[in-house]
Amino acid sequence: MYTPEERRRRDASKWTLVQGILAPIQFLVMAISVALVVRYLRTGDGLAAANVSVIVKTFVLYTIMVTGAIWEKEVFGQYLFAPAFWWEDFVSFFVIALHTAYLAGLAFNWPPRTLMVLALVAYATYAVNAIQFILKLRAARLAEKTDKLAATMEAAA
Q1: Number of other residues whose CB lies within 10 A of the CB of residue 85
Q2: pLDDT in tens, 73-116
């Protein structure tokens, strides 16, 4: 997944740490927002809190997407759609589109239930995207372990 030079740039990039901090924050914000959105859909209470939570989630998403593009540029030499993360970036655009549609719907006064369902669809798409990234990171770690083991075996031979 990473060439040795890309791995070196990844490990040296401050954006790797930024992504590592923002990813769990975004997940936590989403979990809180899901609870508020579902509460509104079940009871009709808490519309303002649900709306604020989706807005906060959207801006955290925008932040992680911008910083992720910077990270991708530092590691792979291009802002988006580096071959190693092409599919993750592709799905990310659907995630961004759905979150942005929510903001547009809020601005254009769409019915609250429509907005809340849209938020849940956006969050489900985000969850798929997050799983893509987690699987990619796991594969990278396994590849690094395999590379280190191979190097150790080669040195011992």
Answers
A1: 21
A2: 999 999 999 999 999 999 999 999 999 999 999 999 999 999 99
Measured at the alpha carbon of residue 107, what is the angle toward residues 103 and 111, in degrees to the nearest 5?
90
DSSP code at position 83: G
Torsion of CA 40, 46, 48, 54, to 10 degrees: -50
Q: Any residues with CB less than 8 A from the CB of 139 and at least 6 apart, and which?
A: 1
Longest CA span, the chain: 70
Provide φ and ψ at 146, rounded to 5°. -65, -45
- 49 is written with which tokens? 């809190």
CB 39 within 8 A of CB 46: yes
For residue 99, give both structure tokens: 């979150």
d(CA 66, CA 25): 15
Whether 1 and 139 have beta carbons less than 8 Å apart is answered as yes
Output Rg (C-alpha) for the chain, integer angstroms.
19
Q: CA dihedral in degrees (7, 8, 12, 13; nearest 10)?
A: -40
Residue 82 Rama label (left phi>0; alpha psi -120 to 50; beta): beta
- pTM of model > 0.70: yes
